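Batch manifest, entry 17 of 40.
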Amino acid sequence: MLFRDSARRRAKALGLFGYVRNCDDGSVEILAQANNEEKINEFIKWCHKGPLLSRVDRVEVRSIECPGEFQDFSIRY
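Output type: structure tokens
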């Protein structure tokens, strides 16, 4: 929960919308959207290191269309 909760808090602080969730293969999926590309880039930079005590092996970034789909940033289970 440490990575997901930290990601949620960081995304909210940056004013992002979307979600973070654990995947069955042990990876973490994050979908984030914002009106400001700079905020997204700052969040991606954070994802490369994550919170203290986390281990990030790799980050894949993809752009997708999801106009206005989210109104908050949450942890999905």
